[in-house]
Design goal:
Elements (H helix, E strand, L loop, with lengths): L5 E8 L2 H10 L3 E5 L4 E5 L5 E6 L8 E6 L13 E8 L4 E7 L5 E7 L3
Parallel strand pairs: 1-4, 5-8
Antiparallel strand pairs: 1-5, 2-3, 3-4, 6-7, 7-8
C-alpha cells in the first residue's frame, strides 16, 4: 500500500499569534487552538496547517506529513529508508519517519490504534 497524499503541514514559529493571523489573512480558518501556543488551520478540503510556537533560540522548521490509511497494511518499498517505525503520538495518531535520497525527513501518519 502507498501513501494517500498530504495530510498536513507542520510549521514551527516564534510567534503563534502572528503566524495564525498570517494564514487567516490567506483564507485559512482556525480549527482549534491549544493552551500552549499552537493550533491547526485549514483552507477548504486541503491539508491542515498545524503551527507550534518554539523558543527564540531554536530555528523554526517545517515538515510535510503524508497520510497512510492503515499502518497494518502499509509496507514501505525497500528503497525507502525508515528512520523510525510507527510510534504513538501524544495527539492520538501513529507516525513513522522516513528519509528521502536527498536527506529530507518525512513523516507518515496513520490513525491511532483503537
Amino acid at each position: 500500500m502507498t501513501t494517500q497524499g498530504i495530510e498536513a503541514v507542520f510549521l514551527e514559529t516564534h510567534n503563534w499569534g502572528k503566524a495564525a493571523q498570517f494564514f487567516q489573512a490567506l483564507g485559512f480558518g482556525l480549527e482549534f487552538e491549544t493552551d500552549h501556543n499552537s493550533g491547526q488551520l485549514r483552507n477548504g478540503d486541503g491539508p491542515s496547517v498545524f503551527i507550534a510556537e518554539i523558543p527564540e533560540d531554536r530555528e523554526p522548521g517545517a515538515r510535510i506529513v503524508l497520510k497512510v490509511a492503515d499502518e497494518e497494511t502499509f509496507r514501505p518499498d525497500p528503497a525507502v529508508e525508515v528512520v523510525s517505525p510507527f510510534e504513538d503520538t501524544h495527539y492520538g495518531t501513529r507516525e513513522m519517519t522516513v528519509r528521502d535520497p536527498d536527506g529530507r525527513v518525512w513523516i507518515l501518519q496513520a490513525p491511532g490504534k483503537s
